[in-house]
C-alpha cells in the first residue's frame, strides 16, 4: 500500500488528523511503514490508546495491506512543542 493512501485513510477516519506516512527506514519491504499522526483526539489518552485509535482508523488494512506500522502520535500542542524544540 502506498504511503499517501495510508495518509488519506487515517485523515479521513480520525478526527482532525494530519498524517505523514513514509516507508520505514532500513526496511526493504514496502509493507513496513512509518507514520506520524497529529490529532486533538489524542489529548489525555495514554500512548497505547492513541496508537489503537490509529489502528482502528485503518481497519482491515492493518491485516491485509500493511505488515508493520511504526507510529509516532502527538496532540497538536505536543507537536508544536516538538517543532519549537527541534
UniProtKB/TrEMBL annotation:
This is BolA family transcriptional regulator. It comes from Natrinema halophilum. Belongs to the BolA/IbaG family. Coiled coil: none annotated. InterPro entries: BolA, BolA-like_sf, BolA/IbaG_stress_morph_reg.
Amino acid at each position: 500500500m502506498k504511503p499517501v493512501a495510508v495518509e488519506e485513510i487515517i485523515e479521513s477516519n480520525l478526527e482532525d488528523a494530519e498524517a505523514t506516512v513514509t516507508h520505514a527506514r532500513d526496511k526493504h519491504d514496502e509493507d513496513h511503514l512509518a507514520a506520524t499522526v497529529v490529532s486533538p483526539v489524542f489529548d489525555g489518552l495514554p500512548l497505547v490508546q492513541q496508537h489503537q485509535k490509529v489502528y482502528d482508523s485503518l481497519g482491515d488494512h492493518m491485516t491485509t495491506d500493511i505488515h508493520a506500522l511504526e507510529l509516532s502520535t502527538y496532540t497538536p500542542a505536543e507537536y508544536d512543542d516538538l517543532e519549537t524544540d527541534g
